[in-house]
Design a protein that fits this description.
four-stranded mixed beta sheet; about 10% strand; 11 helices; about 50% helix
Length: about 270
C-alpha cells in the first residue's frame, strides 16, 4: 500500500485580469471556498496574499492562461511521482500540501525554466508554473528542491521561526545537493554561481555573529547577493559547503544529513 505523501491543489482562476493583484485576489477567493487557507502554510490571509504577490512574478499579464484538465493531470502526475521518488531516497515524514499557481515570467526568470516555488512550512510548498514555459524536468527539479526544504523544516521545527543565516545557507545547500544527486546531475546557475574556493573563502570570512544572525536583511543580502556579494551567493556557498561535508562523511545517509547539527557542517571550512 503506497503512502499518502502529497495533496496537490491548482489555483488558476477563470476570467480576464488587468494585473497580478486581481489574479491573487481571485486565487484567495477560490482558496477560501475550498477551505484551504488554514493549511496553506501562512498564519493569516494577509501573509498569504503577500506571499502570492511576491512570487507570482512580474511578467506581462497577457501571459496568463487558464489551466486545462489535461495539463492538471500531467502536472499532478509529475509532482506525485517526484514526491514518491524522493521518499525512496529520503523518507518524507508527513503528507505535503502542494499548491500550484500561475507564474508570470520576465526575461530575468528564464533561469527557472517556467517553474518557481517557495516552501513555507514543514509540510507545505507553493509552486508557480508558467504553462507555456515549464517542462517535466523543471517541475521534477523544483519539487525535489522544495520537498527537501519541508523535510528539513520538519526535523528542525523547534527553531522554525528563528532560523539563522547558517540555517538558511544549509537549507539551500542540502536541497541542491539532493536534487543534483537523485534527479539532475547538472549544477544549476544559482548553485554554481561561485567556484568552490571562492565559496569557502566567503564562509571562512563570516564571523560567529553573522552566521548566527536572524535578521532578514542580513540573510537576504547574503543569499541573493548585494554590493558585497555576487548574485546567488548564499545558494552557492551552501551548495559547496554541503557537498564537501557529504564527501567527507560518505557513511551518513540523507536521513542523518537532514538531522545533523548545523554547526557540524562548518567544521569542513577549517
Amino acid at each position: 500500500m503506497s503512502k499518502d505523501l502529497s495533496r496537490v491543489e491548482f489555483y488558476f482562476p477563470n476570467g480576464e485580469f488587468k494585473d497580478k493583484t486581481e489574479i491573487v485576489e481571485s486565487i484567495i477567493f477560490l482558496m477560501k471556498n475550498q477551505g484551504s487557507i488554514d493549511y496553506s502554510g501562512y498564519a493569516d490571509i494577509e501573509l498569504l496574499r503577500q506571499g502570492l504577490l511576491d512570487h507570482i512574478g512580474n511578467g506581462n499579464i497577457e501571459q496568463y492562461k487558464e489551466i486545462s484538465e489535461d495539463q492538471k493531470s500531467e502536472i499532478e502526475k509529475v509532482i506525485s511521482e517526484t514526491v514518491e521518488k524522493c521518499d525512496e531516497k529520503l523518507s518524507v515524514p508527513t503528507r505535503n500540501f502542494i499548491f500550484v499557481h500561475p507564474y508570470l515570467t520576465t526575461k530575468d526568470d528564464k533561469v527557472f525554466d517556467g517553474v518557481m516555488a517557495v516552501a513555507v512550512y514543514s509540510c507545505v510548498f507553493h509552486l508557480f508554473i508558467n504553462l507555456e514555459e515549464y517542462s517535466e524536468e523543471s517541475i521534477k527539479n523544483t519539487v525535489a528542491h522544495e520537498l527537501n526544504h519541508t523535510i528539513y523544516y520538519y526535523h528542525h521545527y523547534d527553531d522554525f521561526n528563528s532560523y539563522t543565516l547558517l540555517d538558511e545557507i544549509l537549507l539551500e545547500g542540502l536541497a541542491e545537493n539532493f536534487r543534483e544527486q537523485y534527479f539532475d546531475p547538472k549544477t544549476t546557475k544559482w548553485a554554481g554561481a561561485l567556484e568552490k574556493e571562492e565559496a569557502f573563502q566567503i564562509l571562512k570570512d563570516l564571523d560567529k555573529n553573522t552566521l548566527e544572525s536572524k535578521e532578514q536583511k542580513v540573510i537576504k543580502e547574503f543569499l541573493f547577493g548585494n554590493g558585497k556579494y555576487k548574485k546567488w551567493n548564499g545558494y552557492s556557498t551552501g551548495y559547496w559547503l554541503v557537498k564537501e561535508f557529504i564527501n567527507r562523511n560518505k557513511n551518513l545517509s540523507w536521513e542523518e544529513l537532514m538531522k545533523t547539527d548545523p554547526k557540524r557542517f562548518m567544521e569542513v571550512t577549517n
